[in-house]
Amino acid sequence: MKTIPGIIEGEFGCELDEEHSLGIMTHLDRIVEIGGVDMSFLRG
Questions:
Q1: DSSP assigned state of 10
Q2: Per-residue pLDDT, 10
Q3: Segments of the chain with pLDDT less than 70
Q4: Distance separating alpha carbons of residues 37 and 5, to the nearest angstrom
Q5: Does residue 28 lie in a domain region?
C-alpha cells in the first residue's frame, strides 16, 4: 500500500452489526469517499 500525504482513513463500527462498518476517506480538509470499510482500506 502506498502512502499519500494528507490522506486519513477512519473506520466506524456498530455493536449491533459487527459484519458491516462505515469507512471514510479524507484528504486534507475534504471528504473524498464514504462507504463500507473495505472501500477505504483497500484503495491504496
A1: E
A2: 83
A3: 1-3, 39-44
A4: 20
A5: yes
Q: Per the structure, how many domains does the chain have?
A: 1
d(CA 36, CA 17): 13
Q: What is the pLDDT of residue 17?
A: 74
Asked whether residue 34 is assigned to any structural domain, the reply reads yes
Cα gap 16→33, rounded to integer Å: 24
Name the 3-class secondary structure at 7: strand
Q: What range defines the domain where residue 28 resides? A: 7-42
Half-sphere exposure of 10 (CA within 13 A, CB side): 8
pTM passes above 0.70 = no
Chain-centre distance for alpha carbon 9: 4
